[in-house]
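Title: Comparing notes on inverse folding

I've been comparing how different people in this forum approach sequence design from structure. To keep things fair, I'm posting one structure and asking everyone to reply with a full sequence. Here's the target:
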């Protein structure tokens, strides 16, 4: 799996705090030409939440962007997503792979050397590693790892690696230089002027 350099995350809770509808962010991302986006919904999947997940999927699909659901393989299948991303406390990647087969791509979050090495042996398409910098998008984040640790551990896996956690326009170049294939961006994308901010990110992460 070849990941685009920008991996936006549509975080329902964060967007609610900033007065942004997730569908509006998905539409703006699609209009900007993003090639992948993840929907993160940490609450229960009520009928409304599932409907929102399906709406976001339709928006991204219309633009040819890959759609990933966070945590929930069952919701990813129901919402017609292209992938599911799971963490250390979710279903094990092997169980997720049994559930989704080859229908969906599977991503897996790691936070230290042991988890990264273990993740390299899992049947997943890519790994996420972080938080690289302090992050406000999670209530109880794992310890910050930093770019030096990212650079040190990058050779331990040949899988595509997404760096996550506190990544901004100001520090993203350090992250790429440390070996990340892609950067997952949450807070720094959800600006008041969404089209302008997303366009800026697309320009900064344009592949040469």
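Reply #1:
Here's my take.
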């Amino acid at each position: 799996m070849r990941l685009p350099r920008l991996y936006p995350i549509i975080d329902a809770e964060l967007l609610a705090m900033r007065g942004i509808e997730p569908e509006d962010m998905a539409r703006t991302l699609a209009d900007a030409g993003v090639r992948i986006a993840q929907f993160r919904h940490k609450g229960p999947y009520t009928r409304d939440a599932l409907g929102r997940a399906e709406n976001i999927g339709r928006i991204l699909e219309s633009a040819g962007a890959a759609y990933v659901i966070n945590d929930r393989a069952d919701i990813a299948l129901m919402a017609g997503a292209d992938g599911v991303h799971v963490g250390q406390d979710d279903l094990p990647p092997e169980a997720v792979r049994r559930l989704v087969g080859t229908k969906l791509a599977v991503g897996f979050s790691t936070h230290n050397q042991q988890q990264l090495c273990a993740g390299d042996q899992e049947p997943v398409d890519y790994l996420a590693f972080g938080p690289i910098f302090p992050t406000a998008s999670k209530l109880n984040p794992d310890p910050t790892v930093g770019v030096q640790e990212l650079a040190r551990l990058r050779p331990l896996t040949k899988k595509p690696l997404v760096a996550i956690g506190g990544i901004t326009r100001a520090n993203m170049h350090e992250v790429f230089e440390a070996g990340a294939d892609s950067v997952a961006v949450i807070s720094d994308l959800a600006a008041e002027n969404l089209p302008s901010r997303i366009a800026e990110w697309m320009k900064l992460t344009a592949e040469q």
